[in-house]
Amino acid sequence: MTAPLQIELTAPQTVDGRRVPYQSLWLLVRMAHARRHEAAAGGDGMVRPAELRRQFTDARSLRMFVSRAFRDFAAWGVRAGWGEDGNADPRFLNQDRRSQGPFWLPPDEAMRIDCRVQGAPAGEADLLAFLGLKRAAPAAPAAALPMPADYWMALAGAQQDLRQGRLLAALDDHGRAGRSMGALGGYKEAFGLAGNRLQRALAVLGEAQVWRRLDDLDAARKTLVQLRRVLREGGADEGGYLDAMEQVLTAWCAYAQRDLVLTEGLLAAMRQAEPRAAVVRHHPRIRFEWHNLMALVRRAHALEGDDRDDRRRAAHESMGHFATALDAAFEFGSFDAAQQVAANIGMAAWLFACEGLVGDRAMPAARAEALRWLLTSEWLCQCAGLSGQTAWNAIYLMRVARGDAPARAAASLAEFRSAKPLQPADILAGAAYLHGANGSPLLPASWRALAERLLARERQGEARYSLLQACGLRLEHAWYAAHEGDADAARRSLDDMHAAARQLPPSDRAFFMQAAALLPPELRRE
User: Fold this and answer.
1) What is the DSSP letter of 451?
2) Can you say whether the dihedral through the CA atoms of 332, 333, 336, 341 is positive or negative?
3) How far is CA 8 from the centre of its chain?
4) What is each CA distance from 387 to 164, 166, 346, 454, 463, in whole angstroms?
């Protein structure tokens, strides 16, 4: 074997004691390392031109770079080769193709290269440091898919059912479950298919949302306890979304029982301690949930109490929170979230106007503004692909359309029928710019028909309404049926409303009892 070639890697670099160009030396050491170390680990022992371009980005011409390096190799007595055949004799290779690479050293030439660092033999770590390379990573395992796909299909189906209001499995005429198992069954199925902690937490979060919508607050709280347990298994989730949603849902459960002190306390605590405070500030979905619920809390304060200044202040704060929630809804691109806020704004605008909390605005103007927001909400529902009229939008539209009539208990059915609520056609004529997503009118021919259609969906198992929604629909149906002179139909709806209202919190139950007391005495059961 030809005599070893001693190379000093520390600056100034030398070959057999003579100063040499760095680029040429780098390529020689790189070829030696590829042949002696990488080939032994299963590599081809070659250096590709692309690596030279990455290493020497300021080199203007690869051809000039290679020509200069091979001229230096010849001066050092090194036989280097090029091309895909690493066993070829470098003496017989075509130099016209040399710059195309790849570049390599024959095995015996590679063994001649004796690299040193300050005179001491260089180890592989020294060579890698000189070359600017990292030690080869161990072989990676096969790519892991985010499986099972069945989990994501179950979760997506449950989320869609939740958006569409299909909370439970619909039963056919024979009492058997239909094609959809509903949101509750879908989330439970997803939990069983979950492959990791995050997937389990997403399924449990969804189930808690369903239980809240079903008014089963005990089940909702138990599910939230399960969610907290799942989150503790692996520490806080990235971004804190699930932790924040657990707190928001806990606050919603308190609000459902009209415990405003607890609701406001839970929300305030989220803004006072990190990292939850940062999540509320920066995560648009959490910001939407927080401000939407806080707006409802402030709305409730505005509608009660004796201090008019405090009530006006609460109404102003409520609208401010609604505005922030609407911004956040569009920030994360959810028409479903945006329609919720729009509906809440419309109803709040009407309620505040009725209480004289919005300045000197005339009631017709206040009603027109409230209806505009409610129709916007319904339009957004259709843009989001939500099927059928939403219960809250229908209730709010019917309530605002009848205005403040009657403001006192009607003396008779005839007097009651003299009230003149706005009809759907009147509303759409004043908002011609709003049409359904398919170009059809947003509203039916009559309010009574709307209420009956939604109640029929409930009877047929196509929709499941909360207690508050069910009572609201029956109150509106009773009002409009009575206005049309159908006292029997109105009485039946009032009976159903009274039965359901017994399970509501006292403040909500009182609202429906007071509303029923304003209806004609002919509708009351002895």
Assistant:
1) H
2) positive
3) 58
4) 6, 10, 21, 12, 10
| 48 touches 102 (CB < 8 A) | yes
Could you give the CA distance from residue 226 to residue 204 in angstroms, rounded to a whole number? 7
Residue with tokens 């780098």: 26
Tell me what the pLDDT averaged over the chain comes to. Answer: 86
pLDDT for 175 equals 47
Largest CA distance in the chain: 121
**Count of alpha carbons within 13 angstroms of residue 53, beta-carbon side:** 10
Q: Rounded CA gap, 365 and 357, in Å?
A: 14
Q: Which of 56-60, 122-126, 328-332 has the lowest mean pLDDT?
A: 56-60
Preceding amide of 444 cis, omega within 30? no
Give the strand pairing for 113-117 and 5-8.
Answer: parallel
- Distance in Å from the first CA to the final CA of the chain: 119
SS3 state of residue 5: strand
- pLDDT confidence of residue 405: 72
Burial (CB count within 10 angstroms: exposed 0-12, middle 13-18, buried 19+), residue 459: exposed
Question: pTM for the whole thing?
Answer: 0.72
Q: Which amino acid is at 92?
A: F
Measure CA 356 to chain center: 38
Cβ contact 363:349 at 8 Å: no
Cα separation, 526 vs 491, whole angstroms? 11
Task: Give rounded-to-5 percent helix, strand, coil for the chain.
Answer: 65, 5, 35
The answer to whether residues 398 and 417 touch, using CB atoms and an 8 Å cutoff, is no
SS3 116: strand
Closest-CA residue to 323 (of 342, 303, 336) = 342
**pLDDT for res 403:** 84
Q: Among 394, 406, 525, which Cα is nearest to 470's? A: 394
Structure-token match 């879908």, residue found = 186
Q: Are 211 and 220 in contact (CB under 8 A)?
A: yes
- Give me the count of residues in the chain: 526
68-122 pLDDT, tens digit per residue, is 999 999 999 999 999 988 888 888 888 888 888 899 999 999 999 999 999 899 9
Beta-carbon count within 10 A of 102 CB: 20
pLDDT one-digit tens code per residue, 133-144: 876 556 666 666
Q: In this structure, which amino acid lies at residue 505?
A: P
Q: Is the per-residue pLDDT at 476 higher than 80?
A: yes
CB 412 within 8 A of CB 471: no
Kindly report the CA angle at 63 between 58 and 64, in degrees rounded to 5?
65
Smallest CA-to-CA distance from 295 within 342, 229, 247, 335 is with 342
E strand or H helix that includes residue 7? strand 5-8
Per-residue burial over 360-380, b if 16 or more Cβ lie within 10 Å, else e, is eeeeeebbebbbbbbbbbbbb
